């Protein structure tokens, strides 16, 4: 349904200076930014309630040099953050694109806090793989559901129009100039809305099995843990309008989704000293490299299943996340006083698990590195009571997309700007490169918030210029 139709002769029911497709974090931030510039804004959301992939995440946004970091005594800077992003992605991302979001995200979070009352704080009691400073920021529940709820509340308070159950099924364009959108309602009725500028904030293509098979074949059969509405509309519309794309195989996976509960289990269970074992009770990788690349590794285990094993100390850290508390409430987190008893609950070989955990204890005691390259120097030993969660690997969202410039305007294959098309969040090419291993924790919400604000401000300014001509 991602069609481009000729605008010639089309009559629009009404026209709005800035139309935003998608009511997730990127769309809501873009709408707030455009509204602040004085532009009329309409957010179009296909669901009955704006949520998007944001609601399925932990809601953590990485940002450097913020006041929350300073209050916690954490030294950081946009340059340091940018270096971490590029290092994780092995130099693949465009340095200018990385610098753009690394510099913009901190001020964006402080703007959301000061202007709209979002009570951010920094996660200061554990580190994520690849981050050289503790820079993850979240709301009190540490949940994406709270983040999108508060953003939606800010949009409503600002008086910005949000039209739900409004599925955009086509764009109307004169060449590459977008004139408006076609909205299809649940009852099949169609509306046509004109626009001065269009912001694509409808994420990537993770929910489109055909596109996943084409670009990320290793996860074609994986559990999809993103929003089902992520059908690649932005990508398909952009390509039809002549937009350049980049790193379409890039994606965020996750190697720790509780199965069959379907609840994200925070990676703090690993970074704080936990491990993963397979159905034979044996470790199979360096889990500490990152949760994104771990998805495909877990899926290569028997039945695509692994167990994340940790202890009560780590569980106490994990309980700051609402998802983990839900997993415990559902009985997905097993508990036992000995490795053998834990293995019995897991229904795996007790001798194998006992030997595996003993080996880990030895490595931690000696500061050793295992055969997979994981360095256990400084890691606390696992002590009773032990914990375990049955997990699988999943695809969360794609990271490749439309190439944008410093104003989040979509570029064509020659590097020229498309007239009035902008992209943010998963619709735009992210900063993770072409592989799952390039994903640095938080990269998804990084581009949602940073590019969302950039796109909203720029689209509003462009729409006003067009109106004044």
Automatic annotation (TrEMBL):
Keywords: FAD, Flavoprotein, Oxidoreductase, Plasmid. The keyword Flavoprotein applies. This is Fumarate reductase/succinate dehydrogenase flavoprotein. It holds the Pfam family FAD_binding_2. GO terms for molecular function: oxidoreductase activity. Its cofactor is FAD. It comes from the Bacteria. PANTHER family: 3-OXOSTEROID 1-DEHYDROGENASE (PTHR43400:SF10), FUMARATE REDUCTASE (PTHR43400). It comes from Azospirillum lipoferum (strain 4B). Gene3D superfamilies: FAD/NAD(P)-binding domain, Succinate dehydrogenase/fumarate reductase flavoprotein, catalytic domain.
């Amino acid at each position: 349904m991602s069609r481009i139709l000729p605008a010639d002769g089309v009559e629009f029911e009404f026209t709005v200076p800035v139309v935003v497709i998608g009511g997730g974090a990127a769309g809501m931030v873009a709408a707030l930014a455009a509204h602040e510039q004085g532009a009329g804004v309409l957010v179009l959301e296909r669901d009955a309630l704006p949520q998007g992939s944001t609601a399925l995440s932990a809601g953590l946004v990485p940002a450097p040099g913020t006041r929350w970091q300073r209050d916690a005594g954490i030294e950081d800077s946009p340059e340091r953050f940018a270096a971490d992003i590029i290092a994780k992605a092995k130099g693949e991302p465009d340095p200018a694109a990385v610098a753009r979001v690394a510099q913009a995200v901190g001020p964006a979070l402080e703007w959301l806090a000061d202007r709209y009352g979002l009570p951010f704080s920094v996660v200061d009691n554990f580190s994520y793989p690849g981050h050289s400073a503790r820079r993850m920021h979240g709301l009190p529940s540490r949940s994406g559901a709270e983040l999108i709820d508060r953003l939606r509340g800010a949009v409503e308070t600002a008086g910005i129009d949000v039209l739900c159950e409004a599925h955009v099924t086509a764009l109307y364009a004169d060449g590459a100039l977008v004139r408006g959108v076609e909205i299809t309602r649940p009852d099949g009725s169609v509306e046509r809305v004109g626009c001065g500028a269009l912001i694509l904030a409808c994420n990537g293509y993770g929910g489109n099995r055909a596109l996943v098979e084409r670009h990320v074949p290793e996860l074609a059969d994986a559990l999809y843990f993103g929003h089902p509405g992520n059908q690649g509309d932005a990508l398909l519309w952009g390509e039809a309008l002549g937009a350049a794309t980049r790193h379409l195989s890039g994606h965020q996976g996750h190697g720790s989704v509780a199965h069959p509960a379907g609840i994200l289990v925070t990676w703090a269970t690993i970074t704080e000293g936990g491990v993963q074992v397979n159905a034979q009770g044996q470790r199979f990788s360096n889990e500490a490299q990152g949760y994104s690349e771990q998805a495909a590794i877990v899926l290569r285990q028997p039945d695509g299943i692994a167990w994340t094993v940790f202890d009560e100390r780590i569980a106490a850290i994990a309980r700051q996340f609402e998802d983990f508390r839900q997993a415990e409430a559902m009985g997905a987190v097993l508990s036992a006083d000995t490795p053998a008893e834990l293995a019995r609950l897991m229904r795996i070989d007790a001798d194998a698990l006992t030997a595996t955990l003993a080996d880990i204890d030895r490595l931690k005691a000696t500061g050793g590195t295992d055969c997979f390259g994981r360095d256990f120097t400084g890691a606390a030993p696992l002590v009773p009571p032990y914990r375990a969660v049955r997990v699988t690997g999943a695809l969360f969202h794609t990271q490749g997309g439309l190439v944008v410039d410093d104003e989040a305007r979509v570029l064509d294959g020659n590097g020229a700007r498309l007239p009035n098309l902008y992209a943010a969040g998963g619709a735009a090419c992210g900063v993770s490169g072409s592989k799952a291993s390039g994903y640095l924790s938080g990269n998804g919400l990084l581009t949602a918030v940073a590019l969302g604000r950039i796109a909203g401000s720029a689209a509003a300014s462009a729409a006003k210029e067009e109106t004044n001509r």
